[in-house]
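Lecture notes, unit on binding sites. The following record was shown on slide 14. It pairs a sequence with iron/sulfur cluster.
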Amino acid sequence: MARPLWFVKLLKKTFPNRSLIAKATNVPLIGGLVDKIFFEGDDVIYLPKDSVAQKTIQIGRKLDKPEEITLPSEIVHHFIEKANKHWIMNSCICRDAATCKDYPIDYGCLFMGEAVDDINPHLGRLVTKEEAHDYVKKCREAGLVHLIGRNKLDAQWLGVSPGDKLLTVCNCCPCCCLWKMLPDLNPEIGRKITKMSGVEVIVTDACVGCGTCSEENVCFVNAISLIDGKAVISAECRGCGRCVEVCPEQAIELTINNPEFISESIDRVSSVVDVE
Ligand code: SF4
Ligand code: SF4
Ligand code: SF4
């Protein structure tokens, strides 16, 4: 059943405590229950920023012609073309709840698939394919990064079903996004939000240990620390590419070593969500 607006308001009030709630999932009984109710069957892929994929090494070689590079956002555009229904939120509840100062509050999630019919119409609107294409482009221009996949949590808070007919495209910021809670979540659940296939992020010898990449609101999962005067990236990294862009020494490299990353990502998402 579509959630009433009071429920969404209440949900927003829990945002300041999201890290605490995430930590509670490490208690075995709570973790198992939360996993079943909110994350069962999930698979969500964090797509590297197009602007990084364009400039960096792709499929193991540097390309001379950036226009020939396949961009991760093509995965989102593929599903926009394929989907029968497209629905845009009036605002991003994460940025709204956190009164975000750095990224637009009015760019929220894009949802696709039959289940959008059940969403409370006061929360957003149905749009055409063309509007959806244009919308995600604007989100990227605003510096937001896409996550795409099946996220049962969305079906639950929106009160829609079936969950396998709801595809989520989040347009996330490094400061207020719900997924900042990933390092605190039970790892079993956290593993459902993954790097795109083939993505590797490394720090090269050019690092001078300036610390820019480890400042607040660069890495949304706090995966970078300075150890012995050099940046070190942990396994929490989801390959968004933000740190690549902020490094003044160009010492962080993101590579996409899987030539089939587009088709593999599409297959993965298609195996858990049906948008037609
Ligand atoms: S998941 Fe991303 S786009 Fe969706 S409401 Fe949160 S920050 Fe906004
Ligand atoms: S921003 Fe670059 S140079 Fe500075 S610590 Fe990070 S990787 Fe090293
Ligand atoms: S270390 Fe953090 S900022 Fe850098 S690519 Fe990984 S997730 Fe993104």
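Take-home: The chain is about 30% helix and 20% strand.
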